[in-house]
Q: What sequence folds into this?
C-alpha cells in the first residue's frame, strides 16, 4: 500500500491531495480571490497567498483523508510549468517534508498531470488514447500510450485557447476570470449570430492570435457604430466566440484521431470545464465512433488530485527526484 501527499501551487490555487493506491482520498483547493480586482493573476500576490495557505491546506487534506503525516510514503509536487515564485513555495514545502520525514520526493509536470486526471475514478479511458489539453497557457493534443508515455503531437503556435476566452471576455468588459462567464452567456445566445475566422494552420498545431485580433476589430467596428452594441448582443457575441474556439479545437482533434487511428478521446485542463466544449466532444464522438472521457469538474482546473495521481504512477516506477530539484517556469516534456 502506498500513500502519496501531493502539492500544487503553479498559479493562484493552493492545493493538496492524498492518493492511496491510485484512489484519491482528499482534494483540497484554496482559491485566491484577490486577483479579481486586478483583472488577472499578480505573481507576487499569488506567492504570498500560497505561503499563507499551504500549511492549512495540507493539514486539511490529511484530516479529510484520515491519514497521519507519518503514514505518507512520498511527497509529490508541481515542478513546472507555472509562475516561478508560486512554484517555489510548493517545491520548498515539499522538499522540507521529504527531508523531515525521510520520504522520497516526486517532481510532477503540471500538463502531464492534467492528462492523467482522466485516470481518476472508476470510469477511465483505456490506453492508447488522445487527450486534448486546454488551459489558459497551453493547448495541446497528446497521444497517450501509457501513464509513462505521453507524446505531444500538436500544440499552439502562439496563444492558448484559454487565453482566447479570457482576452475576449476582457474585450467585452466581463470581470476576471472571464472565460467561464463567456460560457454562461453563450448558453443564452445564437452561436451562428456572428462569424469569426478559423485559422488555416496545417498539421495538428493551433493558432489563436489571429482570432483574438479579429474579435477585437469586430468589437471596435460595431461599437463605433453603436456604443451599446455589446450590451444588446452580449449573449450572441459570447456564443459566437465560443463556437469558433470550440470548432478550432474539435477540427484539429478530429484530424488527430484520423491520423493516428485512435478512437478513445479525452479532454483535460481548465477549459475542459467549458460546457460547449464538453458537448462538442460528445457530439463529435457520437459522429466519429469515439469513446469519450473528461475529468470531473473539480479535476479540470488546477488541483492536487491530478498531481497525486501522477505521483502515484511515478512512485510505482520508483521515479524519484533529488532534494535539490528546483521548479522551472516553463519546461518541455
A:
Amino acid at each position: 500500500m502506498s500513500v502519496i501527499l501531493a502539492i500544487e501551487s503553479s498559479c493562484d490555487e493552493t492545493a493538496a491531495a492524498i492518493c492511496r493506491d491510485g484512489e484519491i482520498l482528499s482534494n483540497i483547493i484554496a482559491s485566491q480571490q484577490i486577483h479579481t480586482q486586478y483583472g488577472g493573476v499578480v505573481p507576487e500576490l499569488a506567492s504570498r497567498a500560497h505561503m499563507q495557505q499551504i500549511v492549512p491546506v495540507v493539514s486539511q487534506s490529511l484530516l479529510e483523508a484520515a491519514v497521519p503525516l507519518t503514514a505518507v510514503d512520498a511527497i509529490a509536487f508541481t515542478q513546472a510549468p507555472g509562475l516561478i515564485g508560486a512554484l517555489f513555495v510548493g517545491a520548498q514545502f515539499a522538499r522540507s517534508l521529504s527531508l523531515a520525514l525521510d520520504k522520497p520526493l516526486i517532481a510532477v509536470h503540471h500538463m502531464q498531470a492534467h492528462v492523467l486526471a482522466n485516470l481518476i475514478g472508476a470510469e477511465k479511458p483505456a490506453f492508447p488514447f488522445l487527450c486534448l489539453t486546454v488551459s489558459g497557457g497551453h493547448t495541446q493534443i497528446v497521444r497517450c500510450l501509457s501513464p509513462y508515455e505521453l507524446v505531444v503531437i500538436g500544440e499552439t503556435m502562439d496563444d492558448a485557447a484559454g487565453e482566447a476566452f479570457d482576452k475576449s471576455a476582457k474585450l467585452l468588459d466581463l470581470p476576471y476570470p472571464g472565460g467561464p462567464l463567456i460560457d454562461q452567456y453563450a448558453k443564452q445566445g445564437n452561436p451562428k449570430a456572428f462569424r469569426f475566422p478559423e485559422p488555416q494552420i496545417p498539421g495538428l498545431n493551433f493558432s489563436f492570435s489571429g482570432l483574438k485580433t479579429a474579435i477585437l476589430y469586430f468589437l471596435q467596428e460595431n461599437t463605433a457604430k453603436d456604443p451599446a452594441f455589446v450590451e444588446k448582443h452580449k449573449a450572441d457575441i459570447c456564443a459566437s466566440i465560443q463556437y469558433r474556439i470550440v470548432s478550432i479545437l474539435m477540427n484539429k482533434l478530429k484530424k488527430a484521431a484520423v491520423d493516428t487511428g485512435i478512437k478513445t478521446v479525452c479532454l483535460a485542463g481548465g477549459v475542459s470545464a467549458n460546457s460547449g466544449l464538453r458537448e462538442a466532444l460528445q457530439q463529435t464522438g457520437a459522429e466519429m465512433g469515439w469513446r469519450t472521457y473528461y475529468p470531473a469538474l473539480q479535476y479540470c482546473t488546477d488541483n492536487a488530485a491530478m498531481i497525486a495521481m501522477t505521483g502515484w504512477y511515478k512512485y510505482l516506477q520508483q521515479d524519484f527526484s533529488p532534494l535539490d530539484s528546483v521548479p522551472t517556469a516553463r519546461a518541455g516534456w
Remarks:
- The domain at 3-115+300-316 is CATH 3.30.420.40 (Nucleotidyltransferase; domain 5).
- DSSP finds nine helices and ten strands in the chain.
- The longest helix spans residues 229-260.
